[in-house]
Structure formats: C-alpha cells, structure tokens
C-alpha cells in the first residue's frame, strides 16, 4: 500500500519555539537549535532550542518559588483557573493547533480530531475526586488517627512523541489540581503544540506553576537526576523506563512510569463480523500502530480465523496511507526516522524467516517515514513480531483452539499494560479476569477517562494514572495522631 499520490502537507513557518520559564518565553539567542521534522515529507516544520543545565536549574528555581503559594490554594481555586485556561483559550485555538500537531506528529487530521475529543473528557474537572482526610481510627474519647494528603512538590513530566496532546494533559491536569507545580519535557520530535499550550497558560496561572523545557536526549537525565525535583512522571518505552528508575534512585525520587505494552487481543466465536474487524483494526493500527496500549497480538479462534483475516485484510487494503493533512488518508507515517528504521527491522525479519504476509510488507523508499499496514499470517510464537513490540503498523494474526491455550499464550510476556477480549460476555469476562494486565477492554476499543485507573503490570510500569489512585501517586501521606489531652504515663 503506497502513500497516496497527492500531498497537502502544510509547511509551517520556520519560527523558533522556546522554553517557557517563570511566566514567559525564554530567549533563544545563542542557544543550540534542533529541527522539528514533518515525517510525511521530511521538511523542517520549526526549530526549538536545546536546554542546558543552567536552563533546567532556572526552571526548577522558579517552580520551587511558586510551589508554596500554589500548594496552599484550595482545590476549588485551582480548578477554576484550569477551567478558565481551557474555556478562554484552548477550545478557541483548536484548528491552528491541530495543523501544527499533524505537521510535527504525522498522524491524520481525522485522528488529531479524535484525540482532541478524547482529551476533552479529561477537562471534565468534576470527575477528579478531591482528596479528603481519612479518619482511620476514632475511639470516641478524643483520640483520633487521621490520614491526610499533601502535594508532592515539583513534578517533571516526560511526554513521548506518539500522543503528546492527550499524554501532556494526562499529567498536567492532575498534577496542578493536587497542588503540585510542573515542568513539562516534550519529545524533541513533537514539542510544538505543547509549547503553544503552555505559553497560553501563563495568562491564567501564576509564574512558575507550569513551565516547559525542550531539548535533546541529554535533557531527560538533567530532570531525573535533579536533586530539587520531587517526582518524575514518565511515559515511554520499558527500556527507557528502566534508565529513568535507575536515575531517580540516586535521589530517592518518587516516580510514575507508564511503559510499553505487547497487548493481546482475543477474538472468540460469536462476534459480530460486521463491526468488530474494523474496531480491532483501529485498536491495533490507529496512529500507524504507535500506541502503548494498541492491540499488538491478535489471537483469533480457529473456527473464525479465515473469515476474520479476510475482513481485516480488506480494511487494510481500503485504508489509504499518506500525508496526514490530506483528509482522504487513513494512515500517516511513523513519527521519526529512528522509529521508521526500527519498524523496518521487523519487516526484514518477517521476510528473512519467510513468514506469510497477508497485506503490506514492502519497505517505503521515497520521502517520508511511511510503513504500510502489514498483517502477518499466524507466525510462530517465538518470532520477533510476536515477542517484541514493533510500535508501528505491523501486526501478527495468530490462531488458537481453546480458552486455556489462548490465556497461556497471551500471558507469555513480560509486558502487562492492557488487553482486549471480544466475544460472548460471560466467556469474554472470564478470560479478561485471567489476563495479567492492568486494564482489559471487553467488547470495546480502548477508552480512557479521569475515573478509570490506568497502570501497567509486570514490566509495563510502576504506579499509574487517573482515578483516586492516580491522584494519590502525586501526593504525600501524613498520619496525624491526635489526643484530646495528655494522660499520665503509666510505667
């Protein structure tokens, strides 16, 4: 499936975007600059500066100065300021922001619109449960044991390039609501839209409460090792997550790690063959498969395998690939050359091992980081495409016979982020309960909201996001043991 011939790529003006520190854009004069590349045509969209240690230190000082006052404001006050930022600015700049987003990320405008709509769910600030004191013990005689929550302090948010819109706000909103201050580090591949959001936020929030620093691979360790940052919220690969955890250990930093997945999707007999294949296709290959909780191993019962495979292949062939700015295209490129090369290693391995490809499989050799939607027919469980996460539009379709077999094979991985089961509800729920993952969606695509806790099992993460549990990861607990009066000591 070659990219569509016509291209409507938007060549964004090569203006400089910068850090935002202490309420204002940071001067870029004399700074080392790096290019942000449009993955559809490899043109330069804009440039961003590379943060130095001095820039990071200045952001941390500003955050530390802002924290005492911000942490003492009420939940209601913080909520009102965030809501005003959203209502006055964010919703009114959607069109321009999504053009920037598509140009830097590569996704289709249709998917950008969909992600925007999903992000809006997280702006329903009434769905975030305000932490309350918990009376653990009260003997009725004036002796009370209270558990109270306090803001952590400075949170550094390390955001990846695959879904920077929603993943930024997954971190920003709960961090600020709980009285913490935040320094956002976007990926150098996709920093532009996030910078625009945070520049605008300075009109609504006090200086130092929300800042952004941008840079190259040297920036992450500057934040994770910084002695005056209290918590790291990281979303990214498991390998990088291990490095983050090791770096945080030196200063005993608290951390939330949302890491990679190799999610199994199990298809049982009795599904609606009219609607389920399209939803499975999208759950696996939306954003060209660059999705931590994407369906990455599709297990289909042998009784319906051939029919389901034919449906999936038909959808893949009908989905046009090309520049995300063209509304006719359903799949864009992968985001960057590094990822493009990695995904092509999977295609090379599939070819070298003579695995049957039902659709796709060819390497793109023209401009742009395009990888065709590729479906592999029942490869061995020991193959690279089954045991590793491609993070691209390459998908193994696997055949199974019975429930115990598919559960065993689905759980045979060190990953445990998410999973899916499609089929009759009682059987599907029974299987879902046996999957070793933090979230399982039954008869539905992936969906997220502020009330539903999301965290990985095994090597897919530490801690999690959303819900009461996610908020509590951003706060410190204190036990207050109160006595009405001092009693004589009995020896």
Automatic annotation (TrEMBL):
Coiled-coil annotated residue ranges, if any: none
Domain spans labelled Aldehyde dehydrogenase: 32-479
Molecular function in Gene Ontology: oxidoreductase activity, acting on the aldehyde or oxo group of donors, NAD or NADP as acceptor
Active site residues of this protein: 258
Keyword Oxidoreductase: yes
Record bears the keyword Oxidoreductase: yes
Keyword annotations of the record: Oxidoreductase
SUPFAM superfamilies with a match to the protein in the record: ALDH-like
Protein name (Swiss-Prot/TrEMBL): Aldehyde dehydrogenase
Species this chain originates from: Acaromyces ingoldii
């Amino acid at each position: 499936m070659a990219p569509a011939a016509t291209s409507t790529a938007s060549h964004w003006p090569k203006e400089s975007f910068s850090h935002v520190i202490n309420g204002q854009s940071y001067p870029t004069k004399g700074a080392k600059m790096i290019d942000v590349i449009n993955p559809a045509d490899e043109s330069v969209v804009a440039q961003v500066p590379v943060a130095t240690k001095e820039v990071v230190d200045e952001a941390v000082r500003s955050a530390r100065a802002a924290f005492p006052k911000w942490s003492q404001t009420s939940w209601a006050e913080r909520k009102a300021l965030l809501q005003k930022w959203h209502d006055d600015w964010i919703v009114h700049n959607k069109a321009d922001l999504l053009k920037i987003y598509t140009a830097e990320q590569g996704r289709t405008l249709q998917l950008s619109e969909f992600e925007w709509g999903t992000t809006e769910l997280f702006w329903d600030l009434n769905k975030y449960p305000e932490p309350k004191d918990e009376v653990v013990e009260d003997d009725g005689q004036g002796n009370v044991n209270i558990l109270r929550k306090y803001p952590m302090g400075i949170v550094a948010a390390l955001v990846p390039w695959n879904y920077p819109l929603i993943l930024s706000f997954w971190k920003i909103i709960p961090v600020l609501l709980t009285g913490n201050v935040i320094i956002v580090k976007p990926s150098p591949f996709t920093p532009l839209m996030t910078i625009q959001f945070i520049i605008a936020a300075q009109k609504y929030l006090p200086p130092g409460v929300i800042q952004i620093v941008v840079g190259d691979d040297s920036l992450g360790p500057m934040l994770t090792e910084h002695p005056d940052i209290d918590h790291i919220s990281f979303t990214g690969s498991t390998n990088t997550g291990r490095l983050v955890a090791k770096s945080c250990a030196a200063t005993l930093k608290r951390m939330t790690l949302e890491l990679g997945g190799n999610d199994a999707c199990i298809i049982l007999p009795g599904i609606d063959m009219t609607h389920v294949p399209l939803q499975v296709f999208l759950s696996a290959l939306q954003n060209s498969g660059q999705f931590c909780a994407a369906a990455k191993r599709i297990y289909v019962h042998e009784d319906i395998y051939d029919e389901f495979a034919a449906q999936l292949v038909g959808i893949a062939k009908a989905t046009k690939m090309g520049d995300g700015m063209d509304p006719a295209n359903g799949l864009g490129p992968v985001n960057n050359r590094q990822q493009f090369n990695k995904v092509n290693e999977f295609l090379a391995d599939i070819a070298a091992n003579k695995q049957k490809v039902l659709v796709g499989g060819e390497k793109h050799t023209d401009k742009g980081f395009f990888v065709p939607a590729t479906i592999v027919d029942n490869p061995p469980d020991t193959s690279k495409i089954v045991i590793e996460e491609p993070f691209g539009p390459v998908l193994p379709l696997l055949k199974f016979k019975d429930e115990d077999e598919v559960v065993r094979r689905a759980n045979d991985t060190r990953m445990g982020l998410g999973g899916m089961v499609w089929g009759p509800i009682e059987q599907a729920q029974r299987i879902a309960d046996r999957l070793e993952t933090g979230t399982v969606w039954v008869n539905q695509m992936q969906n997220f909201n502020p009330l539903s806790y999301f965290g990985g099992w095994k090597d897919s993460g530490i801690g999690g996001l959303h819900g009461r549990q996610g908020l509590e990861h951003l706060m410190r607990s204190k036990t207050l043991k109160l006595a009405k009066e001092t009693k004589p000591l009995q020896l």
